[in-house]
Write a structure and sequence with these properties.
Organism (chains A, B): Rhodamnia argentea
Strand content of chain A: 15-25%
Protein name (chains A, B): methenyltetrahydrofolate cyclohydrolase
Structural class of chain A: alpha/beta
Oligomer: homodimer
Helix content of chain A: 25-40%
Pfam families (chains A, B): THF_DHG_CYH (PF00763), THF_DHG_CYH_C (PF02882)
Keywords (chains A, B): Hydrolase, Multifunctional enzyme, One-carbon metabolism, Oxidoreductase, Signal
Enzyme class (chains A, B): hydrolase
């Protein structure tokens, strides 16, 4: 049922059997390269849509306040839209705006037929009720896939969500496009957030992996993780996953991105993942780097969801 | 964080360490007894509601066709309603009825203020679209908790489903009322149906267990199950789980009910679970029997959900 994954074959020649290994180096899963390929296919699809029906997909982003990280994420998303030929619009609201202000912005995008996807950049300031705001999004424009009805449809067998949340979808795309079998493999998801951990579990299970979810209350995360063929980490703790946590030959997808001050780096900081890369690279058969792994895929999946939303709206295939 | 479960203490005196053990017998989790206690408390709550506001909860059941097992389940549910003072109404439709016929019945119950819970007895005949029918149920009357929005709210942290599906809720109530800690324990759910396996996973995770889901594509279900402190089986395969699958001292909740012909039994058949009871009882610290384990709890939870729905409708607490 499950052949050897292509990337794992590369590695098994060097007979990985114990940790620390003797200099084995895992294949790097190049998220940027894979995402670039997806984005260029999206751009050509957008071009085909424009040529055929004179319409392009449109994404609206609602951002509240001026968090530096959120600004960077939003800028990257909008830049990626532009490069793919997707229209993007930003509604930037002040930090002390009311829930009604956001709902008004949201409603105007809901009523705008040139907007096919709407995303509310999270986290919101504490005085705002995230649940109420996200519930106000129509399913058809919820390109982040965070609506509970969408999540329920992702969870239930025989149902189809309109959108799969971008980061989990990106993680699984990385596995698939790297030739890694998921069906029947043992997977561990570290973290159970609504945005990453939970939908990643649901998606891996849809692909017929046998999945365990490790979280803050798990007593022996290291032991459980060491049994997995596939590990997806979204723990939010830099360098949490050491080499000793990994089964030799495992495939590791690292969702963590933690800026750490570093005056030697261009921007004064560098990014760390949840996984201790230098150790993991000696044990795993394949793993994603940080940066350049999951991050670019999240953006590519957002473009892909927005394109899908527009195709659905225009009944264009 | 996690003390020894009360039932496990009973057993550990006999130093369970390997399988087969020397005659150790697990504590039986008496679902019937626990369910009887819950039902009698529900009956007194219904009495209090009637005395205070002159209203009682009402449950409507929609049954299509004449499956023998469904008839038994429905009869048991309605009998339990009667005993608790809850009104129950049955709409029995012929096997060849149309989707519209069902939707019409459903709508009439939706519009009836004396009905607070509606359940569609599953499975439906193949010509009917179960998804479309279940989606037509309002969240407020979905006492089975099978609506995808309800499931999404069960899955997501920080959200609250209006109803928790009856069987999973019954399983977790059995654990809690038997003094078994869930938080931080390792749990395995065998099976991933929308009705039992999936919501049981979601509910155990809400209680902070570390949960793995075993299903038909799992390669080594025995090995994974043997690591669990808590095992919930809803596999639909009689006697699947042998003693060798279990960790000594584990707690086992058996959702399976398989009628097996047996001329020596009163009704010409007897019920088997997913678990080989005679073997499991020598390894586990506590387990549910079949019948008399989860079954009675499912009914008690249906009454409890119906009472909750009525309290919500009348703003009665």
């Amino acid at each position: 049922m499950c052949g050897l994954p292509i990337l794992a074959i590369l590695v098994r020649h060097s007979t990985v059997s114990s940790f620390p290994s003797n200099g084995q180096t895992a294949a790097m899963i190049d998220g940027k390269l894979i995402a670039d390929g997806i984005r260029s296919r999206i751009a050509s699809e957008v071009g085909r849509m424009k040529n055929s029906i004179d319409r392009i997909p449109g994404l609206a982003v609602i951002m509240v306040g001026w968090r530096k990280d959120s600004e960077t994420y939003v800028r990257n998303k909008m830049k990626a839209c532009e490069e793919a030929g997707i229209k993007s619009v930003l509604a930037q609201l002040p930090n002390d705006c009311s829930e009604d202000d956001i709902l008004k912005a949201l409603l105007s995008f809901e009523n705008d037929p040139s907007i096919h996807g709407i995303l509310v950049q999270l986290p919101l300031p504490n005085h705002l009720n995230e649940e109420r705001i996200l519930n106000a999004l129509s399913l058809e424009k919820d390109v982040d896939g965070f609506h509970p009805l969408n999540m329920g449809n992702l969870a239930m067998r025989g149902r189809e969500p309109l959108f799969i949340p971008c980061t989990p979808k990106g993680c699984v795309e990385l596995l698939i496009r790297s030739g890694i079998d998921i069906m029947g493999r043992k997977a561990v998801v570290i973290g159970r957030s609504n945005i990453v951990g939970l939908p990643t579990f649901l998606l891996l299970q849809r692909h017929h992996a046998t999945v365990s979810v490790v979280h803050a209350f798990t007593k022996n995360p290291e032991e459980i993780t060491r049994e997995a063929d596939i590990v997806v980490t979204a723990a939010g703790v830099p360098n949490l996953v050491r080499g000793s946590w990994l089964k030799p030959g495992a495939v590791i997808i690292d969702v963590g991105t933690h800026p750490i001050e570093d005056p030697n780096h261009e921007h004064g900081y560098r990014l760390l993942g949840d996984v201790c890369y230098e150790e993991a690279v000696q044990v795993a058969s394949a793993l994603t780097p940080v940066p350049g792994g999951v991050g670019p895929m999240t953006i590519a999946m957002l473009l892909s969801n927005t394109l899908d939303a527009a195709k659905r709206a225009y009944d264009f295939s």
